[in-house]
Write a structure and sequence with these properties.
The complex is a heterodimer. Chain A is of the alpha/beta class. Chain A has 4 helices and 8 strands. Chain A is globular, with a radius of gyration of 16 Å. Classes of the chains: A alpha/beta, B alpha/beta. The interface between A and B is medium-sized, with 22 and 23 residues.
């Protein structure tokens, strides 16, 4: 199996920094802004964006945790799907929610996440930030902010590793032989 | 961890890991019932039939709410209004229901083993909602969920189960489940309500209530199972209440943070006093709330995987 590093630690940091600035630019600052990370790695990315906003704006934006298992469209095809907790303690009505995920692929996860958030209320806007966009969409959904765009084939896998769970920061592309 | 079963018939056959999977899954579902919009689309298009041949308030409503909050469709039939009164056998009723393509049938029946008969005859998932004096697995699982929620753990706890042990499916399912963990279980009741060889299940037997509750983390009170002959093994209900009704004074010797449980329906003044049932140590209504989350988890695990 061939492995290529798409982003190293520094590059991930720069991507998150740029995404944070773009979020603040597009939304005229961090007022009425909330971040919702999609389990598992989206949560850590959301927390890093939160930290960047704290440094830039001296303001703490809330971070929620979303588990989309209950909203998946392939739930009956999984062996034993594992549901984890959704922890969104703030009111999502009339705010701008930035969904954060590590890899964007078919768009089905985002579709599920949007449905899950709509069941909690009616946000003013939902935007999407992803670290890696690997293309091959199956839904008419596109990210508002993305770290890199790297179209990957069906025989390729992209893995985002984050130090909070994986011990190091790295985005790798693997090619099955 | 995979969920390997088509049915949920009892806690006896569940492993520690399988019980923990149910409890962990239930934790994720609990939050849904506290939302403004209490519904997720997870089991959309699935059909759940509740077939109760014995009276029930909590279990039936709990199952129906659990199914509906997961977007499944529910239909309920009861013994007295079904064709059972016209002489149809249980198996035939089951086969006929199955022809309408349900995904889960929850059954409560006075005959021990009734859910097992259906499980063997039908392709649908069968959940035991209580079979005679045999098992009531979803009650035991919601009890374990509540204990773990309040105590943070199951291992190392001391539990007293008090009342009509011989006729209680709740006691049996709880004992089977608790013995998968490091739980010290003491059963208490008059000798005629303690089945022979009960100690073989790994529990202690105590005939005096004050001794049974001493130093306990959890006290679970059970009612006299009148419909199963519980009344015929004691001299009188009044006398039973004198010796086996849990009162405030009993809590003095229990652990400081003891919790009082009851699967319901309660017979106030018989097995439990008002002061205890409504007091600060009572988690009886928490049990009912948690029942919905636990049953959502069970429906999800039975239906949510690859079919």
């Amino acid at each position: 199996m061939d492995t290529t590093v798409l982003l190293d630690e520094k590059a991930i940091e720069r991507s998150i920094s740029r995404i944070t600035h773009q979020i603040l630019e597009k939304n005229n600052g961090s007022g009425s802004l909330s971040l919702i990370g999609i389990r598992t790695r989206g949560v850590y990315l959301a927390r890093r964006i939160q930290e960047q906003i704290r440094i830039i704006e001296k303001k703490e934006v809330p971070v929620g945790i979303l588990d989309i298992t209950m909203y998946r469209d392939d739930i009956f095809k999984l062996k034993t799907p594992e549901v984890k907790r959704t922890e969104i303690t703030f009111d999502v009505n009339n705010i701008t929610v930035v969904l954060v995920d590590d890899v964007m692929h078919t768009g089905r996860t985002t579709r599920a996440a949007i449905d899950a958030i709509m069941d909690l209320g009616r946000p003013k806007k939902i935007q999407l930030a992803v670290l890696v966009d690997r293309g091959s969409r199956e839904m008419p959904i596109h990210p508002d902010y993305r770290g890199i765009f790297h179209p990957a084939g069906v025989d390729q896998e992209i893995f985002v590793k984050l130090r909070e769970v994986d011990g190091l920061d790295e985005v790798i592309l693997t090619q099955s032989a | 961890m995979n969920w390997p079963y088509k049915d949920l018939l009892g806690t006896r056959e569940l492993s520690r890991e399988e019980i923990l999977l149910i409890l962990d899954t239930a934790e994720s579902f609990k939050e849904i019932s506290r939302r403004d919009i209490k519904k997720v689309p997870t089991l959309r298009g699935k059909t759940v039939i509740t077939a109760f041949y014995e009276p029930s308030t909590r279990t039936r409503v709990s199952f129906e709410i659990a199914a509906k909050r997961l977007s499944a469709d529910t239909i309920s039939i009861s013994g007295t209004t079904s064709s059972a009164v016209k002489g149809e056998t249980l198996k035939d009723t089951g086969r006929n229901l199955e022809s309408m393509r349900p995904d889960v049938i929850v059954i409560r029946h006075s005959m021990p083993g009734a859910p097992h008969i259906l499980a063997g005859a039908l392709a649908s998932s069968i959940i035991n909602g209580g079979d005679g004096a045999h098992e009531h697995p979803t009650q035991a699982l919601l009890d374990l969920f509540t204990i773990r929620e309040k105590k943070g753990t199951l291992d190392g706890l001391k539990v007293a189960i008090v009342g009509d042990i011989a006729h209680s499916r709740v006691a049996r399912s709880n004992i089977f489940a608790m013995k998968k963990f490091d739980v010290d279980v003491t059963c208490c009741g008059p000798p005629t309500m303690i089945p022979p060889f009960l100690e073989d299940l790994g529990v202690n037997v105590e005939y005096r209530l004050d001794k049974a509750v001493a130093d306990k983390d959890v006290i679970m009170m059970l009612r006299i199972q009148k419909e199963r002959g519980g009344i015929s093994v004691i001299p009188s209900v009044k006398e039973y209440a004198i010796f086996y009704s849990l009162k405030e004074e009993h809590l003095q010797t229990a652990k400081k943070d003891v919790i009082i449980m009851h699967p319901g329906p309660m017979n106030r003044g018989i097995e439990i006093s008002d002061a205890v049932a409504d007091g600060p140590y009572s988690v009886i209504l928490d049990q009912v709330e948690n029942g919905v989350a636990v049953r959502m988890a069970i429906l999800f695990l039975l239906l949510g995987g690859e079919s």
